[in-house]
Amino acid sequence: MNKEKIKEFKKIANEIRKESIIMTHRAQSGHPGGSLSEADILSALYFYKLQIDPKKPDLENRDRFVLSKGHASPAYYAALAMKGFFDKKKLESFRKLGGLQGHPELKTPGVDFAGGSLGQGVCFANGLALAGKLDKKNYKVYVMIGDGESQEGSVWEAAMAASHHKLDNLVVILDNNQVQETGKTKDVMNINPAADKWKAFGFEVFDIDGHNMEEIVNALDKADKVKEKPVMIVANTIKVKGISFMELNHKFHGKAPDDEQFEKAMKELSKND
């Protein structure tokens, strides 16, 4: 991967962060924390890896993406709009009646999974991946989960099933951003060492810096070469990445910035343009 492409993906990630802050501030509602931590991963997925066509969002053999941590929808919507699934102006409807909802809905172009209750995404992605195998399709299924979400038992039931069925067309990405709604994940219920746990469940595991674009791209490429087992990418990230006074502060898990915080946040993010 050449340096110019990496630079481009980083710039897109920063735009995703800015749009996420703009959306949550405008709505005075939403989840900025997990949106900013996942921005680099979404940039690499949507502008490098996923085999998709915004003009034909329902292509049968397209890659699928499942945002299991559906509350982090602002970054997801920003990525979809920037990719061309819908007009960027639609982002202004975030959390408004008839507009883009707080959790993704299937009626939104580009969305493959209606996220809601946590712990369901890997289960759903298993079904998509198994269906692909049975139908002899060559698409891949990518699913992003959260670290707080990983305290849900259903995640581990799904992990066991994915390994049992040798779903090598499944890539699970853990946004391991260290913080959940009520505090540090290690204090609420520690999920680490996450990489060791997923290995024990039969996954091929890549443990990376989730804000290092080169590492993200390389891990996605390595995942393509894995056979006979599913893949887990443990992306070690920072909650509210890119805004110094918000980073790793659980209060911004689901709290929109006020006017003063918004101005400061946008000023910091604009330095990365």
Poorly predicted parts: none
**Overall residue-averaged pLDDT value:** 97
- Write down how many β-strands occur, each being a DSSP E stretch of 2 or more residues: 7
What structural class do you assign from the helix and strand content? alpha/beta
Largest sheet: 5 strands, parallel
The name CATH uses for the topology is Rossmann fold
Strand content: 5-15%
CATH class: Alpha Beta
Q: How many domains is the backbone divided into?
A: 1
Main-sheet strand order equals 1-2-3-7-6
Oligomer class: single chain
Order of helices and strands: HHHEHHEHEEEHHEHEH
How many helices? The count is: 10
Write the CATH architecture name: 3-Layer(aba) Sandwich
The name of the CATH superfamily reads: Thiamin diphosphate (ThDP)-binding fold, Pyr/PP domains
Task: Give the CA-based shape.
Answer: globular
Distance between the termini: 21 Å
Percent helix, as a range, is 40-55%
Rounded to the nearest angstrom, the radius of gyration is 17 Å
What would you say this structure looks like, in words?
- The protein is of the alpha/beta class and 273 residues long.
- The protein has a single domain, classed as Rossmann fold, CATH 3.40.50.970.
- The protein contains 10 helices and 7 strands.
- The protein has helices at residues 3-27, 32-37, 39-49, 73-83, 121-134, 153-164, 185-189, 194-200, 213-224, 259-270, and strands at 64-67, 141-146, 170-176, 179-180, 183-184, 204-209, 231-236.
- The protein has a 5-stranded parallel β-sheet, with helices on both faces. Strands 4-5 form a two-stranded antiparallel sheet.
- The longest helix has 25 residues, at 3-27.
- The protein is globular and about 50 Å long.
